[in-house]
Here is the input.
Amino acid sequence: MKNYLIVFLLVIINYNGNAQNSGQLSGGYEAYLQYYQSDDATNFIAPADRLRSMNYFNTNYTYKQFSFGLQYEAYLPQAFLGYNPDLNGNGIATYYAKYHKDDLEVTAGYFYEQFGSGLVFRAWEDRQLGINNALRGVKVKYDFNNLVGVTGIMGNQRLGFKLSESTIYGVNADINLDNIIKLKNIQLKGGLSYVARYQESVSGNADLQPVVGSYSSRLDLSAGNFYTNFEYVYKEPDARAANQVLLDQVLFDGNAWLLNFGYSQKGLGIDATLRRLENIQMYSERLLEGNSYNAGVVNFVPGLTKQHDFSLANIYVYQAQPAISFGEEKVGEIGGQVDLYYTFKRKSVLGGKYGTKLALNYSRWHGLNAAFDMAKQIYRADFAKPGELYFQDINFEIRKKVSKTLKTVLSFIDVKYNKPKLEGEGEFVHANIAVADLEFKLAKKRSARVELQHLATKDDMKNWVAGLVEYNFNHNFNVYAGDMYNYGNDDVKNHYFNVGTTYTKSSTRLSLSYGRQRGGLLCVGGVCRYVPSSKGVTASLSMSF
Amino acid sequence: MKKTMLVLSFLFTTIFYAQNIPQAKVLDMKGNKVDFSEIVKSDKPVIVSFWATWCVPCINELDAINEVYPDWQEETGVKLIAVSRDDDRTARRIKALVNGKAWDYEVYRDFNDDLKRALNIASIPFMIIIKNGKIVATRSGYTPGSEEEIYEIIKN
Here is the structure.
């Protein structure tokens, strides 16, 4: 079947490619290469397959109202450490054909989509995280006069090079209430979604249904400089699973509440979000619940905290806690975050010659306050009363151009991390992190960047210090060297050094580095993957056409 | 493997086409879905910068351009469109950040990664420069001062 499709695509591409440039071809290639080296200091033993590569080649072809595409992936001989071991070998991983005319869009094959904020459904790709949970099936979108946009989806979810045994289907409506009731200066949008998973499971519990659905309703309002939006999600009762064992004695439903509001005008922006989650994660197969590779996730439940860009700020990272665990006495989370952005104007006292930019962020997350009956395996959770503190982050960042040749970013972070609750081991951590990032312009095309970081804590692994120097010979070519050093504790004093170089030419990027990787969570967009400690050479290439 | 070779050899023979504007919808800051091809329509040059609220070099680049943007606009009529790659974890921050930084750009969000896939964006910052409805240049990454090279492209 797949082979026929490829031949069909190629024939079309060839036919049109040779005709007078009537269609449009585009594509991209990304390759990552890793060579592992054993390392006594971090007790890292290189795996049997020391040399590994991961390759993604995709191409899209558009001809009038039609477009076609495919993605070839090769994990040779298998994916890097920390990725799903199901990713090995090679093959055509995804393909699609799409028809798009006016208000109608029909896709057959693999597709990506998101409903609302993703709390009921999100199919997306993130190569760094090793996530590609596209559905293979059919997607139809229709827009009724810019008043109501409707999307229907149905398919099996991609799991590595295989498909889920369940079927996922759903429908979504985005309603432009402002256009319907003809509001002039107010934007008002509504949304409704239903997403279900059909999976037969062998269970002694007669109440366990093959179809489990989630419902979402949303409202989005903005007027002038103010805006607010709200989403409520309900998930029908379902069995849980832990370590590939079905827990079906008692079925639990789930829910999520999300409220966001903000105000902004030129030079000032404030944004606040509150969220409560209770048993809301959905997997395409029940037994995948809690797997460490994010395999089979159907909905998107990110940790709502600031995503920091500096390495020491990424040691204690919060992941959303949407799941029930009787062993750990967890049933969900409640909390929120606030952001403030402000610009001190040029020539003001704090603005100086070039102006100063300030960003503040505060986030705080608790477990739900709940009473557990361990014998019956049931619980009762309070709606608004927060339970134990899981995480808190207070941080601010100041950006200032000091002179024509020097720009600075200063950042300070105070983080509290409930390690026993979040990782199931260790002690509660309270750490302070300070970062200075200095950018020097040396000549027309030459520049340098120096990054200094320090993390102070009496807990866990104790203090860290990190530094990085980057030298840009021109806009295409740079070299860098950096180190992270864990000091202050008696047992482990490791240097996590890294040296590397990057070459960029238009959209082509080539990089090479050698060093030691700290084991820990790698998070992108609030979703995290555990990266084991390792040492070795890494090379990567990305290009597009 | 044969299959792969076939696909690869095939594609490299057809690479040499000027890039057209891809078909994709993005969200404006009022929550409306708009055609990307419509928002980049202009007889003057258009810069499209792909960024995110959590991407430090992206913000460095947009901050740097913002300082010279009034001059660029006056001299070339250029328009900069900042397309955010934020997903729903951080998307709510966009409006506050853009206003808080007093940026003068038009801001949109690539909410379903459609543009990312259409343009094969592997990492951000990523920039495309459009003239007369064609993508004439693409760039990946940011180094201090590289905005001057962009100016050279839009000026000519």
Remarks:
- Residues 91 and 134 of chain B are 29 Å apart (CA to CA).
- The first helix of chain B runs from residue 2 to 13.
- The first strand of chain B starts at residue 19 and ends at 20.
- The radius of gyration of chain B is 16 Å.
